[in-house]
Amino acid sequence: MTPTVPRHIAVVMDGNGRWANRRFMPRFVGHKHGVDALVRTVQACADRGVEYLTVFAFSSENWKRPEEEVSGLMGLVLVAVSRYLQKLASEGVRIRIVGDRAAVSDKVRAAWDEAEAATRHNTRITLSVAFNYGGRWDIVQACRRAIAAGTPAAELSEERLAEFMSLAHAPDPDLFIRTGGEVRISNFLLWQVAYAELFFTDCLWPDFDGAELDRALAAYSARDRRFGSVKPAPVPAPDVHGVTSSS
Ligand code: IPE
Ligand code: IPE
Ligand code: MG
């Protein structure tokens, strides 16, 4: 039986731009409200006993967006960290950033470092923010680091490679949620979602809240996770004569 509460939820926070467009506002306003939805969701997950939440905030491919939107998103990182870090830290949230930090500015890198350092001893919930992250990038960087660490080809097993993946600090996600109505992975956690339960919702990310999370959790509870195995056959109930009903 699937436990009601997944240990690890991964979320593609999609739909910010459309949320703003529907209100005749610039896309950036949607991203701002998206930060509020994230803080709300961290709280809602922690309240429900979820131990790990991993969110897709900026993909390796999002650099293709107009310069103005990209710089707006980078600025939003700084605003979000200064506005919410103390609150999250005091609520027991441990923050980890996953992704390629080489391409982001010194200011953004410093904000990430600060967020990680200020929350490193927290244990209530681990929030991993995927920023300048791509699932393919992750697999390649893990291979590179495994080789650099001297792993012989014959010893490069799934378990060994997993030690170098950027979410090595978390178990694989149990539940993968994508908001915004698109039904695709968009190069998020390709390696780690091998056996995650997938949940897609039309809800746009800035509207995401505890009620929408509960819908995803209810769907998750109804899933039958087999991991490639088979479910044990139900034991037939004996009838009144002591003969099983299937005989
Ligand atoms: C997701 O919302 C946030 C980021 C990719 C940074 P979008 O910006 O993709 O919003 P839509 O999909 O255009 O509505
Ligand atoms: C995925 O959303 C990336 C993030 C939510 C950060 P996109 O909006 O970039 O994905 P596509 O372009 O619809 O596949
Ligand atoms: Mg999108």
TrEMBL record:
NCBIfam families according to UniProt: uppS
Required co-factors: Mg(2+)
GO terms (BP aspect): polyprenol biosynthetic process
SUPFAM superfamilies referenced in this protein's UniProt entry, alphabetically: Undecaprenyl diphosphate synthase
A molecular-function term among this protein's GO annotations: ditrans,polycis-undecaprenyl-diphosphate synthase [(2E,6E)-farnesyl-diphosphate specific] activity
Keyword Endoplasmic reticulum on entry: no
Keywords, sorted A to Z: Magnesium, Metal-binding, Transferase
Protein name as annotated: Isoprenyl transferase
Keyword Nuclease (UniProt): no
InterPro entries from the UniProt entry: UPP_synth-like, UPP_synth-like_CS, UPP_synth-like_sf
Classification via Pfam families: Prenyltransf
Residues that bind Mg(2+): D14, E197
Enzyme class, UniProt record, top EC level: transferase
Subunit structure: Homodimer.
UniProt-listed Enzyme Commission number(s): 2.5.1.-
One Gene Ontology cellular component annotation held by this UniProt entry: cytosol
Positions annotated as active site in the UniProt record: D14, N62
Bound cofactor: record note: Binds 2 magnesium ions per subunit.
CDD domains listed in its UniProt record: Cis_IPPS
Task of the protein: Catalyzes the condensation of isopentenyl diphosphate (IPP) with allylic pyrophosphates generating different type of terpenoids.
Origin species: Rivibacter subsaxonicus
